[in-house]
Amino acid sequence: MSHVWRPLFVALAVVATILCMRLVLVPDDFGIHEQGYMYGWHRKGNETDWKNIKVKYRTTAYCINCHKDKYLDIKDSPHAAIMCENCHGPALGHPQDPRTLEINRSRQLCVRCHFKLPYPNSARGGIKGINPATHHPEAECVLCHYPHNPLRAAVRKEAKR
Amino acid sequence: MISRRNFCKKAMLFIGGVAVPVAGLEIFNPQRLLAEKQDPAKVRWVFLVDTRKCVGCGFCVRACKLENEIPYDANVSRTWVERYVVTRDGKVHTDSPKAARDGFTTKAIDQAGKGMLEIRDEDITKAFFVPKLCNQCENPPCVQVCPVGATYQTPDGVVLVDRTWCIGCGYCVMGCPYGVRFFHPVYKAAEKCNFCYHRISKGMKSACVEACPFGARTIGNIKDPEDPVTRIIMTERVAVLKEEYGTKPQVFYLGMSKEVK
């Protein structure tokens, strides 16, 4: 055997090893799929992985099933467009685990929209707002305002809870 | 006896000769060409943002963080809301404190390291909020630069990241002209908005769309002419961000202002 051929065998061995390792390491569904080389080079199974992630925000349609009274309260109020979970947290695990749901009474929640910002050409300028430094700075908004229908006076019992 | 020089020459000729027909097979695959021509996808997700409706409440950012398990207090977010305040002297002040997770509850502009900037009410000529998220580009640069096939585009146009394949090289973070990419502090993989793929594929809307009380965010299917979002995109004057990059973003903006970059 001539020494001239030796590098060739070495090269072939390297190529063979790489091909074998590739066979083991690269999953079967790894390929270019529908989108072609430029953008579609991926593991097809990952699409399903993403689809299988649990939905956490169940939306108002889910809350209505049990809390119709609260829904009716908010339906005709200026807060109608706010979904329940914006203030109560995502409903995943509710009602099986009641503690996962929160009742957020903080001022920080309300001033998201109701701190007056002087922006006339933005919708924010049109929202009824207060200055949190001067408008009862110590109090939680829900002491005076009923969040499910801010037009209605607060129910004292509910506020004290 | 073959000489070393001759061997190298012949080997190169052989490899070249074999490579040409193999490449030909790949390029002229008729099925592939047909598929690309017909574009069989029935769904192409697009996003429509109405900046005139946004009030900067930040409910979208909060919902996104909780829905997609982005560490709540870490300074990373899949979506964020920017505030633009243009003053009388022509200056544009922008901020997005904590990605606007808690909304905009102060008049002062957060200048990061340089402290807060108070602007007098009478100095403001215009001010508005602009929600931003991944543009799910038709020509996504982040996908092109990914060396391992971890970032890819699905047939319905959404760009996803395979967390198990991401090696964390950061090319996509650098490649995105919109700066929407970051590293997930827990999964240690590149992360970005995926239009809540787990929700839209179940017929739901993305979390930020559901959370927006003002209807500033909407998601739709541009392949469906009856879709209300498609109707608005087709009939009204919409703009996209950084059109000059040729990425063909699929997030459309209503009421866009020239200050927004």
TrEMBL record, chain A:
Top-level lineage group: Bacteria
Cytochrome c-552/4 domain boundaries: 53-89
A family per Pfam: Cytochrome_C554
Signal peptide stretch: none
Name listed for the protein in its UniProt record: Cytochrome c3 family protein
Species of origin: Geoanaerobacter pelophilus
UniProtKB/TrEMBL annotation, chain B:
GO MF terms, alphabetically ordered: 4 iron, 4 sulfur cluster binding; metal ion binding
Keyword Nucleotide-binding: no
Keywords: 4Fe-4S, Iron, Iron-sulfur, Metal-binding
Pfam families xrefs: Fer4_11, Fer4_2
InterPro entries the record matches: 4Fe4S_Fe-S-bd, 4Fe4S_Fe_S_CS, ET_IronSulfur_Cluster-Binding
Domain 4Fe-4S ferredoxin-type: 45-75, 125-156, 157-186
Name of the protein in question: 4Fe-4S dicluster domain-containing protein
Organism encoding this protein: Geoanaerobacter pelophilus
Lineage: Bacteria, Pseudomonadati, Thermodesulfobacteriota, Desulfuromonadia, Geobacterales
